[in-house]
Amino acid sequence: MKIGITCYPSVGGSGIIATELGIQMARRGHEVHFITSNVPFRLDANHPNINIHQTDINDYSVFRYPPYDITLASKISEVIVEYDLDVIHMHYAVPHAVCGILARQMAKKDVGIVTTLHGTDITVLGYDMSLVSAIRFGINGSDIVTAVSESLKKQTLSLIEPEKEIQTVHNFVDEEYFNMTDRDAVKAEMKTRYGIRQQTKVLMHTSNFRKIKRIDDIVRAFHSVHGRIDSVLVLVGDGPEMNSVRMLVKTLGLQDAVIFAGQQTDVRRFYLMSDIFLLMSEKESFGLALLEAMNCGAVPVGTVAGGISEVIQHERTGYLVEIGDYARAGERIIDILEDESLYNEFQSRMLEDIRRRFHSDVIVSKYESLYRQLIGEDGDA
Ligand code: GMT
């Protein structure tokens, strides 16, 4: 098949999933065309089946805003025609599904449109009445719509009320890269590099430091753990909340115990050094970083927000707490860090659960089957 993919190319779960999916499809022999404003983060474009088409978004002084959506739609339509695409896969309803629909009209070709909803397009934009019609249009005008969690699907149905059926297709982990190989060696090396004693426990979080990630809660949970257990907190990433997080760390007197690692291209090394991965968001449609960290051996503690409770099985593969309940999160972390055999049980159960539910083969086959349905070949998804 010839597949076009449009996503936000910057660091973020939706771009990562779109990129990984494209890579896996290329490995399966499909011809993949990324049509994006930049080369997607994590895309190693060396595969012969991968093509990249970048849009040039010119900033004309006559326009108040650069015309991203229109330029992108125009580019997608050109690629549809030039490469005779069978399917285009749009990540995000707004703007990308809408761009895809426009592109199909411009191209005058009956290309199939798959749209995947990732979260912010629904859980944040869905509350913005000025965008609801566009989101509904993007969903209804796509041929197949998927959401990355059951929770996101339900929220979309209730907030947007689309006519289109939505199928849940969970995210997957690239297990060739995110796995426990050399965990002990990498852990030791990273601890030395960051001046952490070998016996010290490591708690970790990574994100784009948006307010919805509630990183203050992570710092507060860590505060109580640190009072009981020799531990450090490693924060990877950057974003709008960084200053207020730094302030809180100072107020709580944790400067020597919190490492701000900034943005990292190889986040795997950080997962491998971690004992606990924390995701305390108030909105989170899935939490891809959880899956990556878990497959590298870090036991997760998260909130019940959105899809997090579909990823973590409470008291089996990790712990769930209510949104904002950092005190309970701290207690749970202490419980598991103080009981090595319990920790090991959680770790082996979570690895098994990921193999069963979130393996790339399972999920990529689902998408492949959806594409096949669209081009009239049998698909059993
Ligand atoms: O988490 C973010 O802020 C980034 C955002 C994105 O657009 O990349 O992530 C969303 O999509 C990911 C991939 O499906 C999900 O794992 C994240 O949970 C989701 N983020 C939110 O729902 C806040």
CATH architecture of the largest domain, please?
3-Layer(aba) Sandwich
Bound molecules: ligand GMT
Counting helices, strands and paired strands, the structural category is alpha/beta
As laid out across the biggest beta sheet, the strand order is 3-2-1-4-5-6-7
Overall pLDDT:
94
Percent helix: 40-55%
Largest sheet: 7 strands, parallel
- Fraction in beta strands: 15-25%
Protein name: N-acetyl-alpha-D-glucosaminyl L-malate synthase BshA
Organism: Salinicoccus bachuensis
How would you characterize the overall build of this protein?
The chain is of the alpha/beta class and 381 residues long. The protein has two domains: 2-172 and 359-375, 3-Layer(aba) Sandwich (Rossmann fold), CATH 3.40.50; 183-357, Glycogen Phosphorylase B (Rossmann fold), CATH 3.40.50. It has helices spanning 13-27, 68-83, 93-107, 120-124, 129-140, 150-160, 183-193, 215-228, 242-251, 268-273, 288-295, 308-311, 326-337, 340-357, 360-374; strands at residues 2-6, 31-36, 50-54, 87-91, 112-117, 144-147, 166-168, 201-207, 231-237, 258-262, 276-279, 299-303, 319-321. The strands form two sheets. Strands 3-2-1-4-5-6-7 form a seven-stranded parallel beta sheet, with helices on both faces. Strands 10-9-8-11-12-13 form a six-stranded parallel beta sheet, sandwiched between helices. Strand 4, helix 3 and strand 5 (112-117) form a beta-alpha-beta unit. The chain is globular. The chain starts with a strand and ends in a 7-residue tail after the last helix. The mean pLDDT is 94. The structure holds ligand GMT. Ligand GMT is lined by residues 12-15, 17, 118-120, 123, 148, 171, 208, 210, 212, 283-288. It comes from Salinicoccus bachuensis. This is N-acetyl-alpha-D-glucosaminyl L-malate synthase BshA. Pfam families: Glyco_transf_4, Glycos_transf_1. InterPro entries: Glyco_trans_1, Glyco_trans_4-like_N, Glycosyltransferase_grp1, Thiol_BshA. Residues 11-176 form the Glycosyltransferase subfamily 4-like N-terminal domain.
